[in-house]
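Class prep. Protein, please:
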Amino acid sequence: MTTQTELSAIEVMKARGSVKKYQRGVEIPKEDLEEILKLAAKAPSSWNLQHWRYLVITSQEMKEKILPIAYNQQQVVDSSATVVILGDLEADKSAEDVYKPALEAGHITQQVYDTLIGQIKDAYANNPQKARDEAILNASLSAMQLMLAAKAKGYDTCPMGGFDREKLIQALNIPPRYIPVMLVVIGKAAAPARPSSRFPLEKLVIRESF
């Protein structure tokens, strides 16, 4: 649901920052959190396999449980929610679920369907590095979209790569199919994000070729 307080896309991108300090005890309404996740899930993905899964933690008990796993970064327990962004290492198994409805609806032909399914199976066959790369790449696209969606809804976020992945997998019973890519905390800022410098485009952009 769009409200007058929501920002434009450009305003959101300019306003988003990695907030470290959150107002403790703020609860995100279920409908807000679900809309943020639905928007995150509209991110693009290779073959539309939608490699992301969101393990959402809102209870204080569970946040306290993962606090030491996240090296005691206080935003894990003070924020309203900690979302574990998971990447699907076996996303090829979703191919039929993705393309069969399109085939049955007549949007693609049997030949196109067979070609796509074949391409996906060939890409993933005996290629764990490809599976890992795709899981991290596509889940990261969704994570960025989640952060922008949260900002548009009036919430702040911080992506976190500092945590013990093996301990997180054990603590949350994460199946081998999924890899924890990052944590994203969501909540209301108690202090603004620290200002961060950005390189000028002259240092970032290579035109045509090196």
Summary: The first strand starts at residue 52 and ends at 57. The two ends are 45 Å apart (CA to CA).
